[in-house]
């Protein structure tokens, strides 16, 4: 039976089957690209694999480690390979890479880069990327495929015929971590030797991009088969060196760090120093430096046993030494070597860049700064890292000089082999080489769209967590365990529905939320091209809405007047008129007070056309009042959001009442039964449970918000496929009176339906002599006389009628008061819906506690 050398879309096949399938590769690409691979799917699978590889005794890790060791890797080399894989594949590193190279964690979304223009852009895959992997770096084959997957491409990776199956098995494990099955269909691994040029030619002919890892010979061998329409990406061998100014080469610590770089990885990395250049043209400086550096290199070499070299490596070192020793008679060179041959320094009076034979072999050469560009620029295509040791002014000047000569990166000695997340590779970003930037110019039909992907049927999504629910208490208890790197922004909740709390975000997470919220505002009807917005949310202790909408409007490049809550309504109206504001962002209670005081004047000036509210709800009657009496054309929820989760839902032209679309890029939503942790039946109310999709700081998996809602079936008339849900109040936003629960939301609904009430409503509970006492407070500017209103409530609210007239457990009366006399939260300014003054509800300090 033939060996199964190849992994073709999850199936192990032999050479004969691979040869049969290769001619059909173009058709495979067409079929595969019909089901786009989302970046979020790739990141989720990679992160899951990283966690598996981080588990020391996991069977998958043990099996992969065995494959590396069978290929001749030592235990230390195996551990180093896993460290590379874990760092690369983790969610945090991949998201940073995506943001750095493609600008967003979801660069595949077709969005408006400039919200003031109807132009949509995205990063699109090139199609098929063929990766030619090297034989000396076991992790490269799999990781270059991951880069191709992140860009949404179909990927074929060729590994050398002498390689083991490590790349195959690692990519198979990655596919196993993807419940959508897409990664498997986007991946092919072939193992064959360079002599099979017919296979290589077929791969290159079908490819849109060919990425080659290796030296000049490898690149030339592949390039001969790459057609003109195909992009060739060369990840070739590079050469690196150190450069020391006079004051730097006198410092022992600098020389020790440099010696460490020479010994690390036996100079096998492209960033390893092979030459040490001195800022001098004096040969005596070069020879003196070699003598001073030798004992420090011996110390560094002694800390790590020298490797056993093969005949070819030893022959190259011996040949280099012999030639250098012969040139000593001409005064050109001087060789200093360890007695056991473990290291060597070759001092050379000539400046030309020259590769060393590696394995702790280093040249020392003069190169005055005035000649850097002249000497190095002819070798610019090979230059990579400069280990620069100089003072601060010299570092700034010399860095520009080395960049002009062709160097790609500059570090300090001791750090030449180190890198950072998101660092360009050989002067370019890989993901951009594997992508195309494409655009669509739209017309006014798309003025409310921030992303065109919402208009198409959604593709597969990573599975949501299925662990235990997280309560607010759970999240706050875990606050101190959040890593400091993930706690960059602290947001304080003012405690409008419970006690004050603090939530943390990374700046990247916060930025993604604000951009998503901006797309939601576009859908709701805000137009940054024409609208002039006043931010009237509270900027004091309850500052979350104010600062968030300040940032959202900034990201929309909108005209903004951040006025904030002000008790002088006339002054606010003056500012709105003066600055020609046509759009208001505010809490419902403040909007109602503002229009009650200055609505007639604002209507007469005809300036305010749009109102977006947040933090609470406006009833249908209140929205109708703003439209009919004050001429407001758009009255809509700005965002359904909170300080703990950020934006959760948005409205569109066809969303009425409390119906919202879900921000699917930010969150997953479950609606669970009110009393049991299972999905609520279709179209029935349940508890809203959210899971953030990308948030790094407080991972609020399956977070219970305390809100109630239900799914809205079907596709919205706006054309968006994002799921819709209707908010149905707070879980617990009701008061128990005897055996009956009285809901504030239902009282508000009855008032609107029965007598067109458009004001605020407050329920106050207290104890009487024989019965509990309910007081319903209404705004006298919108309500009928108290007796008529009382009768309406009893006639139209069965539970209230049962409690009052049948069970006689309570008495109810209606009070009409001025809007300013409603009791509100001290920090938030929001209306306190229910005030419970009964003894059982009084807090330990003797203050009445709101039931919310």
Descriptive tags:
7-stranded mixed β-sheet; alpha/beta; 852 residues; 4 domains; Rossmann fold
Question: Would you summarize the structure shown here?
Answer:
By secondary structure, this protein is an alpha/beta fold. The chain is built from 27 helices and 37 strands.
Give a description of the structure.
- By secondary structure, the chain is an alpha/beta fold.
- It has 4 domains: 6-14 and 24-236, Aldehyde Dehydrogenase, Chain A, domain 1; 239-411, 3-Layer(aba) Sandwich (Aldehyde Dehydrogenase, Chain A, domain 2); 506-638, ANL, N-terminal domain (Rossmann fold, 3-Layer(aba) Sandwich), CATH 3.40.50.12780; 734-850, GMP Synthetase, Chain A, domain 3, CATH 3.30.300.
- The chain contains 27 helices and 37 strands.
- The strands form 8 sheets. A 7-stranded mixed β-sheet has the order 2-1-6-5-4-7-8, sandwiched between helices. It has a 7-stranded mixed β-sheet with strand order 11-12-13-10-9-14-15, with helices on both faces. A 7-stranded antiparallel β-sheet has the order 24-25-26-30-29-28-27, covered by helices on one side.
- A hairpin with a 6-residue loop joins strand 11 (333-337) and strand 12.
- Helix 4 (59-70) runs antiparallel to helix 8 (166-176).
- The longest helix has 20 residues, at 283-302.
- The protein is elongated, with a radius of gyration of 34 Å.
- The N and C termini lie far apart (71 Å).
- Mean pLDDT is 91; it is low at 841-852.
